[in-house]
Design a protein that fits this description.
The chain is an alpha/beta fold. It folds into two domains: 279 residues, TIM Barrel, CATH 3.20.20.70; 102 residues, no CATH class. It contains 16 helices and ten strands. The protein has an eight-stranded parallel beta barrel with strand order 1-2-3-4-5-6-7-8, surrounded by seven helices. Helix 7 links the parallel strand 5 and strand 6. Helix 5 packs across helix 6 and helix 12 packs across helix 14. The longest helix has 19 residues. The two termini are 44 Å apart. About 2% of the residues have low confidence.
């Protein structure tokens, strides 16, 4: 028997890369183009109390390992319930060498400014302050004077501690009911007071065609004002299921950074899942090694806050690498029999399971064939006798869904009892 070909040669010869579109150069995505605000979203969904300071720190360390450059912790307002828990995290951050820029949301009132001072002093590191425009009491339009007042207050806080190397940014809501001229006015108004970064937030009130079109127009406008804004960021919405696509489009259009939360945690449909952004960017760049911590990190967070991962969720769901279809299973089985694991991972999956410590799972269902049955039995050390195989195939064909492991074993046990009765 001929020796199997090397995995890399087989994949290169048999798998065509359809994603290599000339008009989209995803390989140029910067590794620092991701901002995660999961902990801020967790806080708003009432799960914060279930996370200890050590668990939050472990999560932040995982974010740094998968390529995120910054993370948002939420508000550090001294009048909010979670304030003491935020201070506990600040102490942990002060003891950690984690390479991650930390942001906190900050209002313009005194308790918020005091909370920032205390947090930054305990953390002993640079902390970025993020101004939400709604904290300017809904002022329309956003004026340089009000933003400058906020910046002056933040700078005063920075002067009170040698630990605080303050950077400032603002989040501007972008909705379809606003004229382009107003949005541009807001951007220019904020730019005149020397913000370090500006976040354009799609608050989810726009219809899908508008979202992609408006995003491209905004980014095009910003390209002409780059000298005023060192960093421009996009905080998308996933209410129409286009969050990942629009965010990737924003990166391809050379926006500096995109935002998201792990597993899309937050109000239903609101946030872009940052794990899917990381997955797409890393695969396009060929940085599969950067994804080794992605699955453990997501599963760790889900367990900590009791978040149920849908069975059909990409990469992490129970069905992510599972098939019972005869033609799919047959192709995967042939690759495995040739000892070509890389090919088995890619022949019917755009995401290689092995990179994430997972494997292709072949089960039995109405669409399964005899090859699938025999493979299922052989991988569990059960002799694939013709009569047993025929029985299991018949059971699978009668089913209206994929059979569970327990159901298949029950069918095997019934067949053995039946055979024993006939023999006696």
């Amino acid at each position: 028997m001929d020796a199997p070909e090397p995995d890399s040669d087989v994949v290169e010869n048999l798998i065509y890369e359809w994603n290599a579109a000339p008009e989209r150069d995803y390989t140029s995505f910067p590794a620092a183009g991701l901002h995660d605000y999961t902990l801020s979203a967790v806080n708003e969904t009432q799960h914060w109390s279930t996370l200890s300071a050590s668990e939050r720190l472990a999560f932040l360390e995982s974010l740094a390992m998968i390529g995120c450059s910054s993370a948002e912790l939420g508000r550090v307002d001294a009048e909010r319930d979670e304030y003491q828990q935020q201070l506990e995290l600040a102490k942990k951050l002060g003891e950690s060498p984690i390479d991650l820029d930390i942001r906190v949301c900050l209002g313009s009132h005194a308790s918020a400014l005091h909370g920032l001072l205390t947090f930054a002093s305990l953390a002993g590191r640079r902390v970025s302050a993020c101004l939400m425009t709604k904290d300017l009491e809904g002022l329309v339009p956003v004026t340089p004077d009000r933003v400058e007042q906020w910046c002056t207050a933040v700078d005063a806080i920075a002067c009170q501690t040698h630990h605080l190397d303050m950077r400032r940014g603002v989040v501007l809501p972008v909705v379809s009911t606003l004229e382009d001229s107003y949005i541009y006015h807001c951007i220019l108004a904020v730019g005149t007071v020397g913000m370090d970064w500006i976040v354009l937030e799609d608050v989810g009130r726009s219809v899908p065609p508008w979202t992609e079109y408006r995003t491209e127009r905004l980014i095009s406008f910003l390209a002409n004002t780059r000298q005023r804004h060192p960093v421009i960021e996009w905080k998308g919405s996933n209410r129409y299921g286009l969050g990942v696509a629009v965010s990737l489009g924003a990166l391809a259009a050379e926006i500096d950074r995109v935002h998201g939360t792990v597993l899309g945690i937050g109000p239903p449909g609101s946030h872009v899942p940052s794990d899917q952004l990381v997955l797409n960017i890393a695969l396009e760049q060929g940085r599969e090694s950067a994804l080794e911590q992605l699955v453990p990190m997501c599963e760790f967070l889900a367990q900590c806050i009791n978040w149920r991962i849908p069975v059909n969720y990409p990469l992490l769901g129970q069905d992510a690498f599972r098939t019972a279809s005869g033609v799919h299973a047959a192709a995967i089985i042939k690759a495995m029999q040739r000892e070509q694991q890389a090919l088995a991972d890619r022949v019917y999956s755009s995401i290689p399971a092995g990179v994430f410590g997972k494997k292709q799972v072949i089960e039995l269902g109405p669409l399964s064939g005899m090859a699938t049955v025999r493979y299922w039995l052989s991988t569990r050390g059960i002799a694939a006798e013709p009569e047993l195989s025929q029985h299991l195939l018949a059971v699978a064909k009668r089913a209206r869904r994929v059979l569970s492991e327990e159901e298949v074993y029950e069918a095997i046990a019934w067949f053995k009892r039946f055979k024993a009765t006939i023999s006696s």
